[in-house]
Amino acid sequence: MDAERAKVAELEANHRAISLELANAKSLELDKRRELVSASDEIEKLRMKHTREIMELEIGVKSKAREARELADELRLVKGDLERERDHVSNLKATVSHQSTSHITLNAQINALQAQNTASQTQLDAAVNAISDRALELEIAQRRILELEQDARESEMVRRKLHNMIQELKGNIRVFCRVRPVLTSDLSSSSSSTGLVRSGSSNSPTPDDEEKGAAADMSFPDKRDHKEIAISSSSSSAMGFERKEVYSFGFDRVFEPQSTQAEVFEEISLLAQSCVDGYNVCIFAYGQTGSGKSFTMEGGSTAATTGMIPRAVNEVFRAAEHLKPKGWEYKMDGQFLEIYNETINDLLGKGEFDKKKHEIKHDKSGTRVTDVNVMPLPSPASVTSLLRVANSRRTVAATLMNERSSRSHSVFTLRISGTNTHTGESCEGSLNLVDLAGSERLNSSGAAGDKERLKETQNINKSLSALGDVIAALGEKGEKGEKHIPYRNSKLTYLLQNSLSGNSKTLMILNLSPLAAHLNESLCSLRFATKVNNTMLGTAKKQVRGSS
User: Fold this and answer.
1) Which residue windows are coiled coil (predicted)?
2) Would you say 288 is a known binding-site residue?
3) Is residue 409 part of a domain?
4) Are 332 and 415 contacting, i.e. CB atoms less than 8 angstroms apart?
5) Positive or negative CA dihedral for 513, 514, 515, 520?
6) Integer Cα distance of 215 and 516 in angstroms
7) Is 326 annotated as a binding residue?
8) pLDDT tens digits, residue range 490-517?
């Protein structure tokens, strides 16, 4: 028993040592201390209650030994946790040190930002002052813009007046003469007309000359202003002597055969501007069949050969677009009519033939024709399709002068109405582009043996004669005062009444064939054009409606 007691005492000593060691290990954890205290109390109870149960004590010792081993393992784990915590603390210290450095850096940045903020505030104050100054400058600039816009509108009014003055100085009725070049088709065609021939040739044109399309002796002596044309011819008198004659004519402008469409339009482009400004403008293409009237007015298929109608429309649209910044808004409509045997046909009507009866009406709003199609023209391109439809319906017939001679007058009318949104001013103008039928005489046209062609030629010549009478009467009215103007003598002159009167600007483009076989007809055309050119019309008036 003493040995057991000694063992027990030794165990107790060991236990106390282990308990002391465990107490030190669990100094950081209160729960572990409670367990050690509980274990010590349990050992004390075992010592008091189981002194007689050695086996139970041995079992208890073994149990405690096992627990001691477990506690030792736990102690090792706690030490490992402690080492990790120390490492963590070291890392935290390093982090704190780094954060301290960062804090210092941030403080420096904060100080820099504060200084920058102070500078920015100063700049902002300066910017606010600058904005105030700019606002004042902007207000001054806006007032200046309003003044400039007013000046621009006034300048536009002055420009219109000066433009119209220039046109009036040039003459409210002008005549241009254009000689077409000799074409390849002229060299192989034959003509039945008896005309004058080139100077220095035989007494009369030979069949060979006519078949080869011999060119007439035309010269253009005015090399500076291009306003003169001279025709020379020679013939035999009854006594057999050679007689030479030179016919000289002067016009506002003479275009030689090499002249281009662009050069011709350059001379008439200002009339398109007059139309936009509110004036009535009328441009005629006059001449015998085959002299190039349709080519001049409608042109060819390429951009270089574009005719006066599409070029004039393009110029009107360009002028209207140019005036938009000045407050002008324009609306444009077009119609295309033909006058055939003193009957008006709508070339834009439905169906192949126009069977409606159209009447011409004149009133305060202008000239209108009943039951015709008036097409809106939103762009110059819309005119191309309009021309294509009109040409497919125009009346044509074969004559000796031209295999597909136009036997009717075609009248393309572009109506323009404009309103100025700034001033309330409104204006209306019209542009009439007229391709007249061939002006040749009966014996030259070959229509004498054909009743239908005879009727056509008689009506054509009647309307052309009426046109000459109207222009002559207008000239006499300007010189002598009141005079009756025979507008009603033909549908052509009655349709164009408002575009031929003193309230309009009129241009006649005389087209001439260059062939010797056509010289008689060319001379007749030149004499008629000279008569027109010598006519003085009154001052053109702008068609203006007052401000609203």
Assistant:
1) 1-28
2) yes
3) yes
4) yes
5) positive
6) 5
7) no
8) 999 998 888 777 667 888 899 999 998 8
CA distance 82 to 27: 12
Which residue, 100, 116, 131, sits at the end of a domain?
Answer: 100
d(CA 63, CA 59): 6
Residue 237 lies in a domain: no
- DSSP one-letter code for 347: T
> Is residue 296 part of an annotated ligand binding site?
no
- Quote the domain boundaries for residue 81: 2-100
Average pLDDT over residues 117-122: 89
pLDDT in tens, 39-98: 788 777 766 766 677 776 678 788 889 999 999 999 999 999 999 999 999 999 999 989
312 shares a domain with 407: yes
Largest pairwise CA distance in the chain: 193
292 annotated ligand binder: yes
Angle formed by the axes of helices 54-170 and 261-276, to 10°? Answer: 100
Q: What is the pTM of this model?
A: 0.63
CA angle, residues 337, 342, 345, in degrees to nearest 5: 30
Beta strands in 251-288 (DSSP E): 253-255, 280-286
Any binding-site annotation on 294?
yes
Of 77, 100, 123, the last residue of a domain is: 100
267, 176 in Cβ contact below 8 A? yes
Tell me the pLDDT tens digit for each residue of 220-279.
998 888 999 999 887 766 677 777 889 999 999 999 999 999 999 988 888 888 888 888
- Give the total number of structural domains in the chain: 2
Single out the residue of 69, 73, 75 nearest to residue 26, CA to CA: 75
Q: Residue 153: which of 416, 418, 421 has the closest Cα?
A: 421
Asked whether residue 175 falls in the same domain as residue 45, the answer is: no
SS3 state at 346 = strand
Q: Are residues 39 and 175 in the same domain?
A: no
189 is in an annotated binding site: no
pLDDT tens sequence across 270-297? 888 888 888 888 898 998 888 888 899 8
AA letter at 302: T
CA distance linking residue 537 with residue 470, whole number of Å: 11
Tokens of 97: 């040190």
Burial class (CB in 10 A: 0-12, 13-18, 19+), 472: middle
| 306 marked among binding-site residues | no
Structure tokens at 545: 């409606």
